[in-house]
Write a structure and sequence with these properties.
alpha+beta; TIM Barrel; 3 domains; 6-stranded mixed β-sheet; 5-stranded mixed β-sheet; 20 strands; 19% helix
Length: 438
């Protein structure tokens, strides 16, 4: 009789009464006799073993005879060492290793596990086992270890290929979950080498619902691809370079892993296991209206908390949509003008820029202002707009916003200075005959 002993790669949680769960430690399978022996672990004792056996059978989909052995594990403190481990236990040497370079993560080095567990020579002498190992390393079999591309699939950037539907990021925040698949746009990426020469990969991804931080510890070794005792999370230098090249802000990925609370970030993060390339989740907007549009009120990143588009992105978009001109009217500032002039005068762009500003006009009380759009008609108007902006910043700042008085170098609204055109942004002093006369 041949019995296969299986140790799950990831945690398999079996829910029990009281909102608690047990973890599947190992599975012994006698395929010929349709018998299964499952070992589970948890920090607490289980009273109803029949219920646990039923839950295990349903969770794992086991047919035949199923027996369950449950073990109560020791309570861990601080993520470093079990309080119940005796002094002469070989695991003690793992806890003695410094983890200062982990910056808050009490994760023992995986190198130590080779000296703790003995190799089963009888298992490696099994011809069936040898064949299974050989097929696992052959391209095209669809089965590889962590860190290699499954079946030569170029879509796999890290770990193994995986399937399943992605869930919204907003649906997984706030609680720990296992075997989660997320899909989104990468916003930020950082590869950082630690003192232990391990690589800490951290990245942020977002979908239409929310964003989340993710991380993974990586080892880069020349023996990462074909070693008999390949360590978890090990990449060859070629695989690592390929990951660094592809994983950039702006790309779309599918990531498989666990949602865990990170004490270092004080937030829930995605502990990534596998990563695959994903199709983009955005739709390119187009403008096919036969009458070209000219936008007369538009903000750039120079408008604090009110826009995300840069000057370069704006001119590129206006050119793509076929708009002949565009007015830029940031909140109380004109900092975008120099770059606008430089980009718009490029002969390849052929976009006319209307220089303007959205101001805050007040009558008698500076705390009661109205929005006003000021557009420069010519060079005289640009000079007067600069003068108006300078005076409002020097003399009429209120709650961080430059206010525009009704009198002064620019008579607003009844006698506007030459070269400036005015229009009302909201209901206010310019509504009525005065605006129509401008």
């Amino acid at each position: 009789m041949k019995v296969w002993h299986i140790v799950p790669k990831n945690d398999i949680l079996i829910p029990v009464d009281g909102g608690r769960s047990v973890t599947v430690a190992s599975i012994a399978a006698d395929l010929a006799g349709h018998a299964w022996h499952v070992r589970t672990e948890s920090p607490y004792a289980i009273g109803d073993m029949d219920l646990l056996r039923d839950r295990v059978s349903r969770k794992l989909g086991l047919d035949g005879t199923v027996s369950v052995e449950h073990r109560v594990t020791s309570v861990f403190h601080g993520g470093d060492m079990s309080l119940a481990v005796p002094d002469n236990d070989p695991l003690r040497q793992v806890a003695d290793i410094s983890t200062d370079d982990m910056e808050g993560y009490g994760i023992p080095h995986e190198d130590c596990y080779d000296s703790i567990y003995d190799v089963d020579d009888e298992l490696y002498a099994d011809e069936d086992y040898k064949k299974a190992c050989q097929s696992a390393f052959q391209p095209g079999t669809g089965s590889t270890r962590t860190g290699t591309k499954t079946g030569g699939d170029s879509r796999v950037w890290m770990g193994r290929a995986f399937g399943g539907d992605a869930v919204a990021i907003n649906d997984v925040l706030g609680e720990e979950q296992n075997d989660v698949i997320l899909k989104g746009k990468v916003v930020k990426v950082e590869f950082r080498e630690l003192k232990s020469k391990r690589i800490l990969l951290t990245f942020q991804m977002a979908d239409s619902t929310n964003g989340i931080s993710a991380k993974k510890f990586l080892d880069v070794s020349n023996q990462g691809g074909g070693g008999k005792f390949r360590r978890k999370n090990t990449l060859t230098p070629e695989e690592y370079d390929n990951l660094v090249k592809k994983l950039k802000p702006g790309v779309y990925v599918r990531v498989h892993g666990n949602i865990q609370y990170d004490n270092y970030q004080n937030d829930y993060v995605l502990m990534a296991y596998d990563m695959m390339e994903a199709d983009g989740g955005t739709v390119e907007r187009e403008d096919h209206n036969p009458t070209p549009r000219v936008e007369l009120h538009l903000h750039t990143v120079m408008s604090d908390m009110d826009a995300l588009i840069t000057v370069k992105q704006l001119i590129k978009t206006i050119k793509k949509w076929g708009h002949p001109a565009v007015a830029v009217t940031d909140h109380g500032v004109v900092q975008s003008f120099p770059l606008l002039q430089e980009i718009s005068t490029d002969k390849t762009n052929n976009v006319k820029v209307i220089y303007g500003m959205e101001g805050y006009l007040f009558d008698d009380k500076i705390d009661q202002s109205y929005h006003i759009i000021i557009l420069a008609k010519n060079q005289i108007g640009i000079r007067n707009l600069y003068k108006l902006v300078s005076i409002s910043h020097l003399k009429y700042i209120y709650r961080g916003r430059p206010r525009i008085p009704p009198g002064g170098p620019v008579r607003i609204p009844r006698r506007p200075h030459p070269g400036l055109g005015l229009r009302s942004r909201r209901a206010g002093p310019l509504d009525g005959p005065e605006e129509a006369a401008l």
